[in-house]
Batch of 2 targets.
Target 1
Amino acid sequence: MTMLHTVNKSPFERRTLDSCFSHAEPGSAVLMIEDAVYGGIKGTAVADKVKAAMDHFKIYVLGPDVRARGLDESQVIDGINVVDYAGFVDLVADHAKVQAWL
Amino acid sequence: MAEPWEEEEQGPVRKFMYVNRRAPYGTIYALESLEVVLIAAAFEQDVSLAFLDDGVFQLKKGQDTSAIGVKNFSPTYRALEGYDVEKLYVEKESLAARGLTADDLVVPVQVVDQKELGALMAEQDVLLSF
């Protein structure tokens, strides 16, 4: 079973997402939550980097955190899956381990 | 006898700028800044707010926090005008890096570039950072 990585920091302010992408094994799942959801949005300065990472990882964003920030699913990069809290739980259950990149 | 805070004489008006560089909700900085701005509005100083870096996300339209269990404080930015807080500066480069324009924001703002914002910061008496 592959690992689930969670990231909760804005990619504009911190290097957490980069660190996650650099260390996670190919095939891992990466779930962006809290301020990290900005990394899943189209048309930003980090969007190309996230799109490139999709070649190696399955990427998810937490919908409630997207909507809290005035964004909606239509603004999420194509190919990133939007999950709710139940989906978060499923991801945890479906992966052997979880690493939280704080 | 008048209490010290009731003295009629108004001290010198000074220029205060609140510098907002954090996204809302992920940390408490944005809400704390707004609280301080509202409290300090009673002191009738020359107040301005700057939004740069992730701080520009504080003003994003359409915030809906119902699913994350915290208060959506973004409508409060629209009330600032009523407290004579009318100078809102948003940094152009920060908006662009985040795929945003002034049309995405909940209030009318002055969009300024980095150099202009730097000059505005330099002319303040007091800078409060959040």
Target 2
Amino acid sequence: MTAMAPSAKTGTASKPLLAVDNLSIFFGRGAQETCVVSNLSFSIQPSEMIGIVGESGCGKSATALSLLRLLPSENSRISGHINFDGLDLAQLGEGDMQKIRGRRIAMIFQEPMSALDPVFTVGHQISETIRAHFGVGRREARERAIDALAAVGIAAPAQRYHEYSAQLSGGMRQRVLIAIALSCEPRLLIADEPTTALDVTVQSQIVDLLTDLASRRSMALVFITHDLGVVAEACSRVITMYAGQLVEDGNVDDVLTHPLHPYTSGLLCSLPRLSAPKTVLPAIPGRVPRTFDQTGCRFEDRCGFRLDKCSVAQPVLERDYRKARCCRVDELILPGAVR
Amino acid sequence: MTITAPFFGPLVSVHNLEVYFAVPHKGATVKAVDGVTFDVELGKTLGIIGESGSGKSTLGRALIGLVRPTGGSVLHEGEDPFELSRREFASHRRNYVTVFQDPSSALDPRMTIAQSVREPLDIVGQLSRPDRDARVVELLERVGLNPVHAQRYPHELSGGQKQRANIARALTLNPKLIVCDEVVAALDVSIQADILNLFADLQRAFNLTYVFISHDLGVVAHVSDYIGVMYLGKLVEFGPADRLMRAPLHPYTQALLSAEPCALPAKLRTKKRIILEGEVPSPLDPPSGCRFRTRCWLARDICATAEPLPRMVRPDQRVACHFADEAVLSPSPPGVTSFVVNTAL
């Protein structure tokens, strides 16, 4: 825990919508406490679309949940600051937080089936959100809910309003979740693997819908995914996480062309590509460490560019609006998605 | 190893295969696989792509005799496995095995990895106990697991390691064909690359034949020699992998390929998206004529009345579409100016 991590210096100079500063997340209690995300700092400008990528267990979802303070308080703890619109969400009381959730920051989840309640109609679940946040009557909430269903491209919204989640297909359910999330016109939408459970043709519909709605409503979007293709198509900026740390942060096209961190490069290289079938894929050797207690670079054991200086703690280094947690950032020219 | 008379035809020959399932209480039939014809050559990899509910997995099961076809035939080296006696079938099916998607549920949680991999050998009972144990060690080593892993239980291994154990178990009895049903879907990209490399390595070493079923086009394109595209039980296109990926003929294949998100900077993403309307119709009540017509931008009256039969439009490339020639000439729905499948991906 050394110097303050730099914040809000990326991209444009305008005031960020969300500034995460030195966020750490701990799971477990007392002696069993483990750190799953450490000293994470990043910021999001209004109406910016960013992607957070990384393998399972790198802390993507924990970060998303912590932004809305959805982690169970009895066996998890967060430290640091989450500045959103002049408020520090990390310190906010539960009552005030409840006013932010859904209203100012909304979230959609991976599995649309389990995110919807099977015993209520989808319309009920949308109006419930609207009534909770705006205090409007049943009739008006119903009208707004039908508008919300129409906005996400659901045909015959007035009929769909009365249907249950089991009557809808996977893509339709995900649209309903988006309708719920957008019904209160949040400033920020967090989408945690929103398309993983869907087929590619439906996935492309949903990705297009999300980016289109976000840009029309000037809403910021955080896409949490392991699919670098989705990030390339939907986002302008990408953050790579590894073993609970931010390892790279930069403009999507720059990162895809010249990644600055060997882990990002490894992820991009291990994707099978249509142009080079039947060749050996450059996989990243080893796997994510189980505990994140090593002092040096956490990627050291799997990195092909390791030197002696990698065994000391690696700060995040900034280079022309880009960030990377690698001491060899100025020496290495790493392969990206373009070759 | 037994020496049998050499067979020079395809390893698996599928002719007009139909697998229908009756739906109880509804009086309906799901035509999971409906009139599919193709061959799988020895030592090659056939990729099967399509969306959920297209019949990919049922086709995979039918290929290795796990489901009995309701019509048509699946021949293994010219032989129909369902014509064999029970005893013959039991030894026959050792040559035709599968690896499933979820590495955790495919392994018995109460057996160590070594026990799981040895089980097929125990059942066959040809080798002595020490020989079986030696074979297990050899197999695990071949797939990149060490003797320490052998004594572990599935929950003590990572997803990638479990999938390696599943592959080792599939290899135990020297199969000819392995049906790989979404084998890397549950794995992270870097582990996925490792497993795909392992499959390629084993294919070279043992002259294995694979049928790779996946919804991930990148994976299928990477491993396959031939690719078949399924839509609602029909094989809509079949051809050599490179040509099918570069110049797809069926509108559905074109849409599917264009929907695949590619990890490239914006200036290199030349391909235009074809956004299909809606989703795959219910297999309980598929559209008449061409099953893709409800989502197809080339559809005309004939598509609703006559089912398009597979035909060779280019050498080796079969497509079931009335307007496949047109799809080649003007391969884009209204509003899309050009269609180039990005080969840089």
